[in-house]
Specification:
With 145 residues, the chain is α/β, with parallel strands linked by helices. The chain contains two helices and six strands, in the order βαββββαβ. The chain has a single domain, classed as Ribonuclease Inhibitor (Leucine-rich repeat, LRR (right-handed beta-alpha superhelix), Alpha-Beta Horseshoe). Helix content is 10%, strand content 21%. A six-stranded parallel beta sheet has the order 1-2-3-4-5-6. The longest helix has 10 residues. About 12% of the residues have low confidence.
């Protein structure tokens, strides 16, 4: 994978009937360490407990789409992140401390985009907003909080 250092987009879509059993956290660590120039990371609906803390090494990441139960502390190092989509992350209870450091963030979506979901399950995800959330001056879209 070291020959792929200049890859800008990485999309991981796995058949739901097969699942993500063979794609572990250590595999994501390898992806992150080899693709440091990554701008787009879309892990689709492949549910993870969390992402590796090493995601913070993807300094150029602009777009992240994932399905996680909680976010690692390393996410606050993504200073150029513009879009964060946490599909299916209606179990997400809190955003990491320091989330306000994502000053380039323009679009934040947490929860599910399924039309048939109970609206209460969408709105009861986060316990509260992180301190200094108002510092995200460029945030234009906040969905399903």
């Amino acid at each position: 994978m070291t020959a792929s250092l200049h890859v800008r987009s990485y999309l991981l879509w796995i058949n739901f009937s097969v699942g993500l059993t063979d794609y572990s956290m250590s595999n994501l660590n390898v992806v992150f360490s080899c693709l440091l120039q990554l701008r787009v990371l879309d892990l689709g609906w492949n549910e993870h407990e969390s992402l590796p803390d090493s995601i913070g090494e993807l300094k150029h990441l602009r777009y992240l789409c994932a399905c996680v139960k909680h976010l690692p502390k390393g996410i606050i190092l993504l200073q150029y992140l513009r879009t964060l989509i946490l599909l299916g992350s209606y179990c997400l209870r809190q955003l990491p401390t320091g989330f306000s450091k994502l000053t380039s963030l323009r679009h934040l979506q947490i929860g599910s985009s399924f039309a048939d979901r109970d609206m209460n399950s969408l709105c009861n995800g986060l316990d509260d907003m992180p301190p200094l959330f108002r510092e995200l001056k460029h945030l234009q879209m906040l969905i399903n909080l």
